[in-house]
Amino acid sequence: MTTQILEELIQGNQRFIKGATLHPHQDPIYRKQCAKGRPAPIAVLACADSRVSPEIIFDQGLGDLFVLRVAGNIAAAMVLASLEYAVEQLGTQLIIVLGHSNCGAVTAAVSGTQVPGHIGNLVEFIQPSVKKCTNNGHPPEVIEVVRENVLQTVNNIREADPILSKLIAEDRLEIMGAIYHLESGKIELL
Predict the structure, then answer these.
(1) Which one of 29, 88, 92, 134 has the lowest number of neighbouring Cβ atoms within 10 Å?
(2) Which residue range(s) make up the domain with 105?
(3) What is the bridge-based pairing of β-strands 94-100 and 174-180?
């Protein structure tokens, strides 16, 4: 089942890249049907960046994706709670952690400069990825840290007790990482 739904997302992204989007499930009749409730087999944890809208880049419509967006696509407690809700109440079978090129949150973490306010909380979540990618004291490339941050977030979700880790162990839930490349529009599966 998850192979089929993943293939639908890949096809949607290919339509987006070509400029041949279908804009499915956006008509008034479907909207009324969807208002009564709809399962969400796919959840996407994406960055809050306005250039990274999962519904658009995967050419999906109303109710097709359960989308969570937070700068740096980090899985803090409230995000994990929302993913648990998705799998428990909406039948989510696949979670995709979606990072993107030129991520501002990752760039801030890589720069190592002091950031104001609550932005430091985001940077703190990303710092382990920065450290893992730092080589001989040289700062890493942002895209390297984006990739590592996605993989670290995937691992954090896999280990989230009690609900997510249990469903993954039972093969009832899959999780994967991906990177959206802003210039090409292409999704790279990790």
Answers:
(1) 29
(2) 2-189
(3) parallel
pLDDT per residue as tens digits for the range 10-49: 999 999 999 998 888 877 877 877 787 777 799 999 999 9
Please compute the mean of the pLDDT values over residues 97-111 and round it to a whole number. Answer: 96
Number of structural domains the chain divides into: 1
For the stretch 162-171, contacts whose Cβ atoms lie closer than 8 Å and that sit 24 or more positions apart, written own/partner, are 163/84, 163/87, 163/88, 164/80, 164/83, 164/84, 164/87, 167/87
- State how far the Cα of 2 lies from the Cα of 5, in Å rounded to an integer: 5
Q: What is the CATH number of the domain that holds 154?
A: 3.40.1050.10
- Helix 142-158 / helix 119-133 crossing angle, nearest 10 deg: 100
Return the beta strands (E) in the chain as ranges: 42-46, 65-69, 94-100, 174-180, 187-189
